[in-house]
Amino acid sequence: MTATEIPEAFPETVWASRGWFVGSGTAALVTARLTALQAENVIEAWIRTDSRGHGQDTVFDARWRAGGNVKVRARLILSDDPQEGGSLWQLTARAERAWDWAWPSPLALFTPGDTMPAISDQPRGALFGEVCQLPLDTALRGHLREVAQCPWSIAVLVHESHRTYPVMSSLAALPPGLLGRVLEYRVTGNQRQAVNRFLHPTGVKLPPRGAVIVPSHPPRPGISLKDLEVRDDVAVDPAPLLAAVLQYTAAPWPATPTALALVQELHGTWALDTDTERLEQATAALQRKDRQLKALTTDRDTWRSIATTRETNLKYAALAIQDAGSREQTALKRLRDTEQRLADLTAATGASALTAVAEAAERRRGQAEQDVEAAEEILDMQNTEILRLRARLAAAGTPAAPPLPSATPPVPGSWEELVHQAQRDLTRIVLADITHTTAPLRGHPLEQVWIRRTWQTLRTLNAYAEATTEHGPQLLPHLAAYLRWPDASDLIPATRHAPGESESLTTSSRLRATRTFPVPRTIDPSGRMFMSEHIRIGSGRPPAPRLHLHDDTHGRTRQIHIGYIGPHLP
């Protein structure tokens, strides 16, 4: 039972109730009672504590065995109230297995035989173990409302057409463990109509000469309204009423948060364990921790080995990327040479020979571009796998492992979907209008690859903005630092990131103008800013798309402003 998971019912192992001891000197009577029971070996041990975190309360803890060899731990809390002429009691008992109502009632063990407590928060309420009369009509509704809202007892209303003396209990044959949990009320002929008016909203009524169990609030699961009514003449044959009460007793008992807190406190502060029990508990705790430690160590070693293997594969993939880039440069150089030779041979050779040479050069260039794209795809997959392995490795090294990362959101299928998902999910990204700038990319064979890489780039930028806000610029001063950060939650290959442009470009007013995009005036009073930082979305020959950005994560907006997504700018 935790603070976040509060059950609506008592555990099956718990017996709990509360009420009033009428009169003074209750603590002394209970002390004498427990002393006598220990001398008779009915209980094994008990202890009394005064003012134990309950104001002026007196707390009694007792331990005994029920049903032969079932350990029972119980706690009685007494709160004296001289103005009311008695003591409020709260009794909680917990057994090692489900409670058996054939066992003696904990209330009978704690209280002297000639002293019976009352229900409710009023010291003059109904008495357990006796046949109680309902008050007059003026107080009847209030009394029944209090009985219906009481979670620790069952109220049974029995109708009698005329009063007989002495009043005999219809529930005398109930199991002894229900003492302190069941109240029996007698309803005279004139009161039945008033009782049924009160019961009408609940859907049950008191039959003539029959009986009814007052429904609890909330209702108990598995109990229908017809199970609460007994239409037989109870005075002639109480067996149907006893069967109905036992069936109702078998359903879960509703509990208040206060009562459940007492159950938890009984478990957490119990001090009457024997030396053998304490040794067994300590041994079991050590064994549990040892098993947990071994399991965590095994998981850690396994995932560390996997991570090492994957990191090696990633290094090979990075080398493949570098090799593919070198081949691309070589192919481009050969293409330029071929084009130059083609220009030189134009006057001396026929068009068909030139066409063949050009087609061969184009095929070599196309193959180089395909190699680069394939290597980029391998790098993306390895990048995703490394993120998953980091999370698993971190989980394996903590006592309470966090859940593994869930599947990433679906990749947008179009540039319009990308804009919509970014505006909805990426709160740290401000995306410019890319309707026109992405037009040259539409319909290209690699369009879906570029959309996926753009989406992963935006997710990485959003994660970087959130991380640098949380951890500060000292740890993550810029995007390049985040791409090298071991705890990054989203990642793109660092080889795609360019922090700035070349000096020749930044000093050219014409080229700077092509990379100047709108921003909020809170960033720049002119409403525009030169964005040299960019990320490579595609490789090879044009369009070779790029994404240009302005990093304002340490500025006023704490966001990243995307000024351009489209073909490589001149």
Task: Describe the 3D structure.
By secondary structure, this protein is of the alpha+beta class. 41% of the residues lie in helices and 17% in strands. It has 13 helices and 17 strands. The protein has helices spanning 26-39, 106-110, 137-148, 192-199, 239-250, 257-268, 275-345, 351-396, 415-425, 447-471, 479-484, 503-506, 509-514, and strands at 14-22, 45-50, 58-66, 70-81, 86-95, 131-133, 154-159, 182-187, 211-213, 229-230, 429-431, 497-498, 516-518, 528-530, 534-536, 546-552, 559-566. The strands form four sheets. A five-stranded antiparallel β-sheet has the order 1-5-4-3-2, sandwiched between helices. A five-stranded mixed β-sheet has the order 6-8-7-9-10, with helices on one face. A five-stranded mixed β-sheet has the order 11-17-16-15-12. Residues 399-406 have low confidence and may be disordered.
Summarize, please:
The protein has helices at 26-39, 106-110, 137-148, 192-199, 239-250, 257-268, 275-345, 351-396, 415-425, 447-471, 479-484, 503-506, 509-514; strands spanning 14-22, 45-50, 58-66, 70-81, 86-95, 131-133, 154-159, 182-187, 211-213, 229-230, 429-431, 497-498, 516-518, 528-530, 534-536, 546-552, 559-566. With 570 residues, it is an alpha+beta fold.
